[in-house]
Structure prediction request, 330 residues.
Amino acid sequence: MEAGLRLGRGASADSSAAMAAGTAVDTAVGTAAGTAAHSAGVDPALCRRLGLLSSHLVVALVALVVIGGATRVMEAGLACPDWPLCYGALLPGRQMNLQVFLEWFHRLDAFVVGVALLVLAAVAAVRRRRLPHGVAALALLALGLVAVQGLLGALTVTQLLAAPVVTAHFGTALLLVALLSALHQRLEGARREGLAADPVAVAASAWLAPAVAVAGLLLYAQCLLGAAMASQWAADLCLSEGSGCQWLLWHRQLAAVAAAALLVVAVVAPERRWGLALASGAGAQVALGVFTLRLQLAEPVVTVAHQLLAALLVALVAALFTRSLAVRHG
Prediction:
């Protein structure tokens, strides 16, 4: 009887061990197969090249936002009275001064970005089967947005800096920054696809992605409100004449909500470096906003830095959102 029990327990243990070994083998084979399938479908060299191009485009777009901010602060938005040329020439010579240079260089940067996006979209469309899913669609969407941005740029001049057009121009620029940042992360994440994901990161992404989305929407709304306020010179009028102060109040209130949302995401983000960057950026942006008003908008450098940091935060949030989705569905 005892021998039979021992024999039964031994057979059960052997069976459990065999099942565990089989599961381990299946997991290993499945992971290897997934990695092999991914490697066969996606061209790493192409992803690296387009990733490099997309990273340069993010930098160029942020620079475009900054130059646009400097153009507004220096009241150079109509320094070139015609469009697309400037004083009827590709390079105005006799009329060149700081204001004309800012507007002319803003258009030049926009043209270079448009050409680079055309190249990116064409390559992504032709080689879409060798790229991560969604990259071609993002590139084509970015190309469409840059065409809209060019039209808004023309209307900004022809409509003599109409506030709704200027606000839409700025909002579209930030959408392009977010889109290219997301596209870059999608390309960078291609090398991680097919690999076993960190269970902690997967669990965190289930709630991190919605949290980042909410924070991003609040941030974007805050940027649009700031652009609407700036395009009407509401802060200047409030500080100098005491009129239009409601815009400034709304901007402050939404800034507090957006900053709080960004800080929550920064605290709970599983990747510490991303959380630290987000928290630092949000804190610095609030500080710049306070300094801008304390200085009575008299320091253009501080005002432009405020706009620069807004664009960088948009890029950072878009990148973090894309990474959280990649982990969740990877």
